[in-house]
Every structure is written in C-alpha cells, then in structure tokens.
Amino acid sequence: MPLHTRLGGPVRALACLLALTSCTRAVIAAQSSSTPEHLTADTPKQTALGATFIAPADWTFSVRGPATILTAPEGDSHIALVDVRAPSADSAVTLAWAAYMPAHTWPLKVVTPAPDKDGWSDRRNYDYQTSPNEKRGVSLLAQRAGDVWTVVVYEMSDATGEKRLAAVQLVFDRLLPKGFTRESFAGRKAATLDAARLARLSAFTERAMQELRVPTGSASASSASPNGPMETRCS
After folding, report:
1. 176 pLDDT above the threshold of 60
2. Percent of the chain predicted with pLDDT > 70
3. Domain count within the chain
4. pLDDT band at residue 155, thresholds of 50, 70 and 90?
5. Is the pLDDT of residue 5 over 90?
6. Are the C-beta atoms of 80 and 67 separated by less than 8 Å?
7. Nearest 5°: CA angle at 47, between 108 and 82?
8. At 44, which helix (H) or strand (E)?
9. Is the pLDDT of residue 142 over 90?
10. CATH number at residue 64
11. Residue 17 counted as domain residue
12. Which domain holds residue 49?
C-alpha cells in the first residue's frame, strides 16, 4: 500500500484539526473585538476583565482583544485600558504595548511608583520620550488588583490632551477594580461628638505629636494693641 494511502487517515485528521483551530482563533478574535461605538453621554463601561470606569461623552469606545480603547472626538488621541495577567508591572506593560501598539518606538524615560488607591496596588507610572515635533504625550499607568493588571495607556496630542483634560480625568478618577465600591457616607447619620469621643481625639493628637516629635508650646492669650490690631505671642 502506498505511503500516502496508509497515512491518509491521520493526515486528513491533522488537516481538519488545524483548520478547526484556525477557525476557532478567528471566532475568538472576532468575539473579543467590537464595532466602534460613539457615545452621546458619559457612559459606565467595563474593561475586558471587568474593571469599571466612565467613558466620556462624544468619545468613541471600542474593544480589541484585551485592550479597551477610547478615542477622543478629534481622532488623533487615545486612552487604552489593557487587562493582562503578568508577574510584574514591567511585564504587564510589555504585554499592554503588544496588545495596543506593538510597533511603537518611543523610548522609556522614567518610571515612578505611585501610592495604592481605590483597591489598586503596585501602581507605577511609565513616562516615554517623544520628539518635540510630535507635540504628543505618552505615558502608562500599571496597577494591579488581585492577579489582574490593568494598564492605562495615555497617548494623546498636546492640544487634544489640554482640550479634553476633564474627560481624561473622568476616566482615571472613576477607574475601579472589578467588584470594588468606594466608601460612601451618603445617607449615614453623623456620630455625636460627645465627651468620650473628644477624649479619644485628644489622646490621639497627643500621641501623634509625641511620635512625630512635634514641639509643644503654650500660646499666650491675644491682647489688643493700643492701635487696635490683635497681636498673638508664643512663649
């Protein structure tokens, strides 16, 4: 029996498997992308893995794989929110660039840590060097919640960035990890500042002053000068 006949069954099976895999990848890619949506109002949205934020009015919202992309009305500027799983912030940034703009050539200028905030930890800012002729700002914020990193890519022209500053701040200020809710005091009754609470507040203040080595002193009572203005002297 010829060799190609004997291998016909396995070869055909392998060919079918490869074709099925290719089709599956195409379906996944299609499902993970979306048709651009023009927003007529500030709209609550989610990233690929569930972080929540507000997409500004008049911007365009789209999804490409793990990257959620917001395009400014001018069309020359973008904010991308990229969800990845990675062992470190640096690795997350590498994956974010690969998903959003793998061909970028801006060199990294400086990396600075940022304090934890709103359920995000291990936050780091990445600033990139652009040429003066570009008149463009490029920076990334990498932050982690659990095992998911959300990398925010700011890639905007200087003119649009200034014009759309309020919209940019809306995106950054309202970006929260999946399932996270900011503490709110709305509808809660304020506690009465009674003697016991005042005593605890005074004790806390004194303890903090001691630990921080804040010098203590006594202020003399204010006295009026002959000309009228009040003078305060410290001893």
Report:
1. yes
2. 77
3. 1
4. very high
5. no
6. yes
7. 20
8. strand 43-46
9. yes
10. 3.40.1000
11. no
12. 28-173
Assess if residue 208 is contained within a domain: no
- What whole-number distance in Å separates Cα of residue 78 and Cα of residue 72? 6
Using the predicted structure, report yes or no on whether residue 209 has a pLDDT greater than 70: yes
The DSSP line for 140-209 is EEEEEETTEEEEEEEEEEHHHHHHTHHHHHHHHHT-B-TT------TTPPPPP--HHHHHHHHHHHHHHH
pLDDT value of position 14? 39
**Assigned domain for 122 exists:** yes
User: Read out DSSP for 59-128?
Assistant: -EEEEETTEEEEE-TTSS-EEEEEEE--SSHHHHHHHHHHHH-TT--PPEEEEEEE--BTTBEEEEEEEE
Give me 179's structure tokens: 């399932």
The tokens describing 110, both together, are 């400086």
Residue 82 near residue 99 (C-beta atoms within 8 A)? yes
Number of Cβ within 10 Å of residue 95's Cβ equals 18
Within a domain: residue 140? yes
